[in-house]
Amino acid sequence: MPDSFTEQERDAVIEAFKNDKRLGMNFRHYAPIVEFWFLTGCRPSEAIGLKWEKVSDDCLIVTFDGSIQTVRGRQVWSDGSKNNKSRTIAVSSRVQELLQCIKPEIVNPSAYVFPSPKGLAINYPNFLDKVWHKVVDPIKPNTTPYNCRDTFITLQLVKSVPSAVIAKWCDTSTQMIDKNYADKLKLSQLRPMD
Q1: Mean pLDDT of all residues in the chain?
Q2: Which residue from 43, 52, 65, 150 puts its CA 20 to 30 A from 77's CA?
């Protein structure tokens, strides 16, 4: 069942990453990918595998056509999405600005948009255990980066974006959105029109 952050919790998580000051390895490095997860609704593995060649020069268009999965401790590239599709989306101005801020002056098209501190693909299980829980649990325990996707979908529904549009952005079905997100929202947040 989806478990989304509120907008306030989402913003608190993003700020916690941006302002992390722990000694040794602070986690500010991961703030861009966390913000990207929250603001695009992509699967965590899709952002981990995203390379600059899949981002338009003006950072307004992003193509998701694969992901990096961790299988038996090894990182494996998987073509297409979970649903074996490729999708190209226009991003919000906030995401465009985020991408422009982290885009290197000289872009290596095959470089990861959100690399690990060593320039490799982020190891998701390692990130989850050693980074995510340390930063996020004080704000909202028992979550994973996948809850960023839940948050994006939920907030778009609250803002009256049609589920068919959200489904295209997020590579899912309207039935999945209506069943798992909209029904829950109808009972808790949406109100009848006067």
Answers
A1: 89
A2: 150
The answer to whether 17 and 132 have CB atoms below 8 angstroms apart is no
The per-residue pLDDT for range 29-82, each reduced to its tens digit, is 999 999 999 999 999 999 999 999 999 999 999 999 988 988 887 888 887 666
User: Burial level of 113, CB count in 10 A (0-12/13-18/19+)?
Assistant: buried
Q: Kindly list the structural domains of the chain, giving each domain's residue range(s) and its CATH number in brackets, ordered by start.
A: 7-188 (1.10.443.10)
Q: Which residue has the higher pLDDT, 82 or 19?
A: 19
* CA within 13 Å, CB half, 111: 14
Instruction: Give every CB contact of residue 163 below 8 A, 6+ residues apart in sequence.
Output: 157, 174, 177, 178, 181, 182
Query: Which residues share a beta bridge with 112?
Result: 51
- Residue pair 39/157 in contact (Cβ under 8 Å)? The answer is no
CA angle centred on 87, ends 50 and 72, rounded to 5°: 50
Of 110, 123, 107, residue with least CA distance to 45: 123
Indicate if the pLDDT at residue 189 is higher than 80. no
Q: State the Cα–Cα distance between residues 130 and 172, nearest whole angstrom.
A: 29
**Gap between the Cα atoms of 103 and 114, Å rounded:** 10
Distance CA 105, CA 41 (A): 27
3-state secondary structure of 192: coil
